[in-house]
Amino acid sequence: MHPGPLHSLQAWHAAELITRRELTAENLVRACLDHITGREPQVHAFVHIDADAALATARRLDAGPLRGLLHGLPFGVKDLFDTFDMPTAYGSPIYAGQQPLADAAAVALCREAGAVLIGKTVTTELANMFPGVTRNPHNPQHTPGGSSSGSAAAVADAMLPLALGTQTAGSLIRPAAFCGVVGYKPSHNRVPKAGVKSLSETLDTVGGFARSVRDVALLGAVLTGDARLADPAAFSQTMAPRIGFCQTPEWALADSDTQQAWAQAEKALNTHGKPMALPPELSGLVAVQKAVQAFETARSLSPERLRHHDQLSAPLRALIADGLAISGETHAQHLQLTAMARRQVQAVFGPFDVLLAPSSIGEAPAGLDGTGDPLFCRSWTLLGLPCVHLPFARGRSGLPVGLQLVGAYGDDHRLLAAAHWVHERLTH
Amino acid sequence: MHPGPLHSLQAWHAAELITRRELTAENLVRACLDHITGREPQVHAFVHIDADAALATARRLDAGPLRGLLHGLPFGVKDLFDTFDMPTAYGSPIYAGQQPLADAAAVALCREAGAVLIGKTVTTELANMFPGVTRNPHNPQHTPGGSSSGSAAAVADAMLPLALGTQTAGSLIRPAAFCGVVGYKPSHNRVPKAGVKSLSETLDTVGGFARSVRDVALLGAVLTGDARLADPAAFSQTMAPRIGFCQTPEWALADSDTQQAWAQAEKALNTHGKPMALPPELSGLVAVQKAVQAFETARSLSPERLRHHDQLSAPLRALIADGLAISGETHAQHLQLTAMARRQVQAVFGPFDVLLAPSSIGEAPAGLDGTGDPLFCRSWTLLGLPCVHLPFARGRSGLPVGLQLVGAYGDDHRLLAAAHWVHERLTH
After folding, report:
1. Quick check: B85 contacting A, CB < 8 Å?
2. Is the model's pTM score more than 0.90?
3. CATH H-level, domain A6-235: superfamily
């Protein structure tokens, strides 16, 4: 019926089997729950699991008509999203035990499409740098990345086929890279953020993780409401995308593992792309993104810094202090500069459908006291462009390495179709 | 010491007196509370008032050092913003009695600056069209406008010098116009939205109300963190702004009251401005704004439409149905079109510092079953530009009429200085 153990089925494959009534949601959910039971003591991907509720929901779905694209598919949700039936703590002791009245909009959209919520996954503290307890499923001595640590690790370990996360600097693409899964950051503001703890209006983006481009596109179609993202025709097309090989101004900081993955990709995709450099006016965006994030985070977290300062970690206090030291005048200039850069980057996509770019400096670093550097994600997040991380290589420690594809604003469907095409060529 | 009753003091004047210790926060708060007690049975501006807490806070502020720009100033908050010490129902029975754990960021910023929270003000249902109980303080048979109904009415009635609101279509400028107060919609995303019920990422904007431009600029400086907004020098400048008289493509729908206010303003400002028309590519934005609002609201309110459909009003259900009927592909095109329009509108501000434009079709309509038409605000909200409503005229029913000034993105300080200059000339 299907290759490998049930819990490791890809989402699109499971959806097909469930649609044909060759697989029940209950059996799929049970398989995932069983695998979680075995692996969670090593991985620590979850802060909350409700197995009984998930099984009950699955049985209800099996007894009823097909609900939507995610019918019967188990999913996990970063604990930065509100859930009406599970506590939501945003990775902070300030919110320990908080029970929201309503789901985040993205969670509700997934449930509407038939997805079965298994549990809340570990986030770093308030989706910032202070790590949670999750370990990299490929090597428990290494970070899974952050801030969507638990979602990336759970999908990588085949505990779940799909999980939700968010990115403000590199919190989707980086953990996807470190855990070796596909991560998708949609175009800025294409997915509703209602009910997600807000840090930075300019940067926060809701997205998700899966083990294939087709899977993450299924999730993306539900989150954006754009059916083109999950159009099966997009994944059988033979037309090659025009790829710009964009090493970015930060390339000198990529380590040998990322360099090697880059060389491998250039070789595999050679005839379909050519090197390109971002125009000079788009250099310096990393510093702007850092400042925008610090300024907006410091102000968005005003309730926490004013009334619960002693419950914030030292690194988060330092980020907030950095943000408070930036003047509102400077921030206004940064917002104007961001608007201008978002405008200027459009021209880059004239000759290219997508850009290939580094996702991370290299493999997941050893140690659990940090979550790695989002360096290679900062500019794309500031630009608001859709990104997909593609895992396809291994680094010197045997951990996953990959690259990201970046699309034009609002062209998520084209990006995902291209990502499927590229990923096939990188992995076969 | 000051002209008129204490409760009707302007914020900047009260702040000066409190700073010089010639007025106590307690006395000011008490004066406002007394006035509220007398008038609230007619106006219905509040859903929650905590007089004891406000007085206690005022006494604490009087006993301590100066906290910031709003030290000792009473303020009200639209019940769409979370407050840690007051229930927050978003104008919907779904959230009746909800007690958030934390303030919205904007509320926390005001408290940090020394403002004293008096209460939560009436919002329409989930900041949409279904009206709350507030009446227009100038005539209780007329709407105060919406969705920030209570905040505008409370400031107009001199219950409070300052109040917070939000705008997704015209929910700051329209009630400001109908109630005859100054309303300020900052540049999109300059003020944090954390802890504010989210309806539309592309449109939602936090702003506020006051009875003068100087007052609303004081609030704006705190909300944006940009000290230039409250720089007293900006309000004593004699340099005239270059004003573009922009009737907008919807001008034919302005009624005779707005036409008369327009003629009056053109006459008063004549030598400092000239007529201008938006370029043709910026027509049609009203329809795009409507579609973006409907699509994003329908998806942001997924938790409510899926689990509490019977507790939504018929008009809101209709808006949601409209939004769900729009495809994700169309929405992606609208987002791309919005990004392009935001780019194109920048050129408009070459020859002009600000644009003068209609705020509303005319006076506040009679009747309490609606909140009036946001027609003249939709395009500016979609464009993300900062706007200030200036009240200066009366319509045929004796209700307030005025116009708005619109600034370039991120140039809120220039807009507010120009608005002060213009308002002086329109009212003297």
Report:
1. no
2. yes
3. Amidase signature (AS) domain (3.90.1300.10)
